[in-house]
Amino acid sequence: MSTELKWTKTDQLKPKPDETSLPFGRIFTDYMLKVTYDEGQGWSEPHILPYGPIELDPAAMVLHYGQTVFEGLKAYRTTDGHVQLFRPDENMKRMNRSHRRMSIPEFDEDRMLKALIELVNIEKDWVPSHEGTSLYIRPFVISTEANLAVHPSKSYEYYIILSPVGSYYPEGINPVKIQVEDEFTRAVKGGTGTAKTGGNYSAGYNAQEKASKSGHAQVLWLDAIEKQYIEEVGSMNVLFKIDGEIVTPALSGSILEGVTRKSILELLHSWDIPVLERKISIRELIQAQKDGTLEEAFGAGTAAVVSPIGSFTYKGESYQVQSGETGELTKKLYETITGIQTGKIEDPFDWTIKL
Amino acid sequence: MSTELKWTKTDQLKPKPDETSLPFGRIFTDYMLKVTYDEGQGWSEPHILPYGPIELDPAAMVLHYGQTVFEGLKAYRTTDGHVQLFRPDENMKRMNRSHRRMSIPEFDEDRMLKALIELVNIEKDWVPSHEGTSLYIRPFVISTEANLAVHPSKSYEYYIILSPVGSYYPEGINPVKIQVEDEFTRAVKGGTGTAKTGGNYSAGYNAQEKASKSGHAQVLWLDAIEKQYIEEVGSMNVLFKIDGEIVTPALSGSILEGVTRKSILELLHSWDIPVLERKISIRELIQAQKDGTLEEAFGAGTAAVVSPIGSFTYKGESYQVQSGETGELTKKLYETITGIQTGKIEDPFDWTIKL
Predict the structure, then answer these.
(1) Which terminus, N or C, of chain A has the lesser number of Cβ atoms within 10 Å?
(2) Are residues B49 and B190 located together in one domain of the fold?
(3) How many CB atoms lie within 10 A of CB A97?
(4) Rounded to whole angstroms, what are the CA distances from A264 to A92, A229, B156?
(5) Are strands A176-181 and A305-314 parallel, antiparallel or unpaired?
(6) How many domains does chain A have?
(7) How many whole angstroms from its chain centre is CA B92?
(8) What is the pLDDT of residues B331-347, one digit of tens each?
């Protein structure tokens, strides 16, 4: 393996884990990528170095004021043994959008994508091939200035770490029960909901714990203002099949613009299935369930790809989505996207990049 | 100096800085305090150790999902040379409230306060005595589990770092111009606005940068829902004197419960000045300014104590608060609180703890 990047090698390579029992995000590869930013100097050349601890001053801003951004994407082992990425350019674009919202200096997307590809190339042997597995790629940027004043940092560190993963949900593609949250809020227009930043995620822990206690796998978030309109499920976008049409919340300024969501909408378009991106209220969803027109419901995101919703609970009342089984379209979408990702199905959209 | 706590000593003490030109939060003392939490074991015994880098796994949750909490309080040098704290028990209580909102295990407030006092005691010589200076105390807790799954961490580290500081605002007690923000949002009911957690602070950077560009020192936040009701100014609570009465936004679920705010309300009560904690809209504020009944306006927080507002800008229009000078009551509140903090004025409320 060779690279044009600066590469500090280790001679202590880790043993590869058992591919049949991979957890999510707890095993990491031998190397990580690091880029630094200093005011006046811009982003440095990328450096590949052994995976290991990050040293931060106790006053480093990331530990106090949450100025962080991250991304999540995956490398897949194809059926013929190659490794490929799924729409990584979309993640780089979104990362820069998140940077803008969090007052972090933007970077050169092409250059950062090239560096990401080089890192994955070096760590190719870590991409698992067992059904449902992949190499999860986590780029993230942290603010490192040692200063307790509340203002944007003057220095940053950007890292990419890699983790061979199994399914995000132990349930796999099986339907989950979700809890409609009507007290806690994830995000609001004008806030940080459209950015992939840390604070959005821990803000949901209270609600997630409440949902878990009542036997629900995920939280369905409502809008912060009227507590009526559906936003996201857990940390995924959410889609419904109602009377033959797909309805999904429009990107209104508090919802993350998911790459899986985007891909699903493009797929549905190519299949001539009508898609409506609009406001959808919890009342409308309940009415559709009562009328029998709520045919399918599922979350969509990089970690789980597609996660079918078997039932939802709102104000103590539970509503089953049809038979409670994974819907046909949900299954077809899952199989098509994972099929394209793993090279089982031809990629007519040029979504994949072969390494 | 002695302590009952575990104490790792350094023999390389730093030189003390020039007290007449202290920045805010960029100089740190010789020691910090550390307490760790591990699932099943609870919070460990506190350990005082030399101020130095924190080592984190690159997958440590704080770097990804923003599960953090912090506090801010000060130790003051009294006119007779002692050192005292101002209502530190309030900060410990609020910290536990923040822990609950962020799904971080609570700690024993008394034990943590005792440890804080021991640390400040050891670092007593770092408490400056020059006018307007103090030793800023920053307790903070970070989530340290190395795991990319989105859920509460199973391990935490709690630190206290200390920084001798001058005035937070270079303007000191001089009035500042503020910008009423009507696009970006700081917090919403059901969100994390009442918790002192990182994400709330970096969420405001975009608006702060916009305000700075137009020559404003601070942002005045409106409520996220109707964009009508006043919430906070910068990272301080805000109070207005209108027609002889003090009006301040009620703690409605998106506003931080400030210790300085609370102390001011208690002082005003003791002075028989009427205080109204209620909703106040930007329209009402503008009307009061036009009618000439808006007598004073100021922010209140630990860092700046009291920060007078000279004028505010809303939708391009600027409104001066009376003569644009620091109001009489604002000045009296500043002098009384800093007087109590530094022992110049008797403390009839038992707010101070002498070390």
Answers:
(1) N
(2) no
(3) 15
(4) 19, 21, 38
(5) parallel
(6) 2
(7) 13
(8) 999 999 999 999 999 99
In angstroms, how far is the first alpha carbon of chain B from the final one? 12
CA distance B269 to chain A (A): 31
Contact list, A138 vs chain B (CB under 8 Å): 59, 64, 148
Q: What is the pLDDT of residue B304?
A: 86
Sign of CA dihedral B108, B109, B112, B114: negative
Closest CA to A134 of A161, A166, A162, A160: A166
Based on the fold, state whether residues A238 and A283 are members of the same structural domain: yes
Domain identity same for A132 and A264: no
CB pairs under 8 A between A and B: 224
B170, pLDDT greater than 90: no
Residue A164 has pLDDT above 90, yes or no: yes
pLDDT in tens, A192-217: 999 999 999 999 999 999 999 999 99
Contact residues on chain A for B28, CB-CB shorter than 8 A = 58-59
Q: Which residue has the tokens 């590469």?
A: A7
Look at residue B27 and tell me if it is in a domain: yes
Residue A225 lies in domain: 176-341
Q: Looking at the structure, do residues B204 and B327 belong to the same domain, yes or no?
A: yes
Domain finish residue from B107, B130, B165: B165
Calpha distance B85→B140 (Å, rounded)? 18
Give mean pLDDT, residues A259-264. Answer: 98
The answer to whether residues A74 and A134 touch, using CB atoms and an 8 Å cutoff, is yes
Tokens for A205, please give them: 């822990």
The predicted structure's pLDDT at residue A171: 54
H-helix or E-strand spanning residue B44: none
| Token pair in block for residue B142 | 């970070």
Residues facing A152 on adjacent strands: none
Q: State whether B191 and A224 contact (CB < 8 Å).
A: yes
Question: What pLDDT digit, counting tens, does each position of B225-259 carry?
Answer: 999 999 999 889 999 999 999 999 999 899 999 99
Chain segment B135-146, per-residue pLDDT in tens: 999 999 999 999
Does residue B329 sit in the same domain as residue B209?
yes
Residue A347 lies in a domain: no
Q: Are residues B146 and B230 in the same domain?
A: no
pLDDT band at B174 (very low <50, low <70, confident <90, very high): confident
Residue B294, token pair as written in the block: 């808006």
Three-class SS string for B137-155? EEEEEEECCECCCCCCCCE
User: CA gyration radius for chain B?
Assistant: 21
Contacts of B209 in chain A (CB under 8 A): 103, 152
A295-333 residue pLDDT tens: 999 999 998 899 999 999 999 999 999 999 999 999 999
Task: Tell me the percentage of chain B whose pLDDT exceeds 70.
Answer: 98
Boundary of a domain, candidates B140, B165, B190: B165
Confidence bin at B172 (pLDDT 50/70/90) = low
Does B352 reside within a domain?
no
Tell me the pairing of strands A31-38 and A176-181.
unpaired
ipTM of this predicted structure: 0.96
CB contact under 8 A, B102 and A201: no
| Residue A328 included in any domain | yes
Q: Which residues of A touch B225 (CB under 8 A)?
A: 188, 224-225
